[in-house]
Amino acid sequence: MQLLDRDSLQAYLMANIAPAHALGLTIVEVEPLTIAAPLAANLNDKGTAFAGSLYSAAALAGWALLTRWCSAESIDAEVALHESSARFLAPARAPFRATARPPGPADLEKLKRMLARAGRGRIELSVEVSCEALLVMTLSGAYAVSSSGVSR
Amino acid sequence: MQLLDRDSLQAYLMANIAPAHALGLTIVEVEPLTIAAPLAANLNDKGTAFAGSLYSAAALAGWALLTRWCSAESIDAEVALHESSARFLAPARAPFRATARPPGPADLEKLKRMLARAGRGRIELSVEVSCEALLVMTLSGAYAVSSSGVSR
Question: How much is the ipTM here?
Fold first, then answer.
C-alpha cells in the first residue's frame, strides 16, 4: 500500500487507528510530518489539552513519518513506539500541532541496513507540539521498525 | 469538592476530561488506583492498543491518585503531568488496565511540606499497564501539584 501523500496517510489513519478518529487527529502536512488536533475533543478539567492527547498526537506524528519513509523505500514493515521521554512545557489552550523532525540521512541509512540484515531496526525521533506560537511539549521517541513476518 | 471514592472520581472524569470519555477510560478501583480501558476504542492498525491510549490511561491513573490524595488532605490544588518516561514492553491484544503505585509516606510528606511552604510541589509516580497477565507498559511520571491561585 502506498502511504506517501497526505490524503492516503490520513485515510489510513481514520480507517485503522480508532483513537486518532476519536481525538480528531488529522495529518495536515507530510513535509514536515504534522498532525493537527482540535482543543474540544482533547480538553481536560483545566480547560487545556489533556497530556495523553498531546502525547497521542506526538507519537502518531513519529509513527506517520516512519510509515511514510517505509512506503517510499518499498519496505513492508510495521512501526511501533518502543520507548519515549516527554516534557510538558506549557498548557495548550487552543488547537495544537505535533511536528516530527525529519531524521538525518545517516540515521535512515543505518535503519535501512538493520532492516536488510536483521529484518528489524530502531530509530530515535524528536517531535515538537506547539499551540499557536508556544512550544507546549517535546517528545523523544525510540521506534521499532520490523519487516512483516519478523516478530519482535 | 470531595473526590475520594470511585464513583465521584469517575463522574468527575466523565464530566471534565473529554478524551477519557472518548477512549472509554474508567476508574475501576481507588486502592490501588486503577483505570480500565476497552480495546475497541483504542485499536491501532496492528489490532493492538495504540501507544497514545496506553499512555493516556497511565497518565490519568497517576493524576487520579494525586487528585484523590489532595481531596483526602483537603488541599485545593491542580495536578498536572510535567515529565514522563515510558516503555512499551509488549502489544496489548485485549482490554487493559493502568495501576498507579502508591507513593511512599515520605514522598507524600515532602509534597505536603512543599505545598504548605511554596504553594506548589512535585512528585514522581510509577504506573504499570497490564493486559491480561502481561505487563505491556511502564510509565514513570513527574507530576506538578499547584495550590489554586498559584500559577506554575
Answer: 0.96
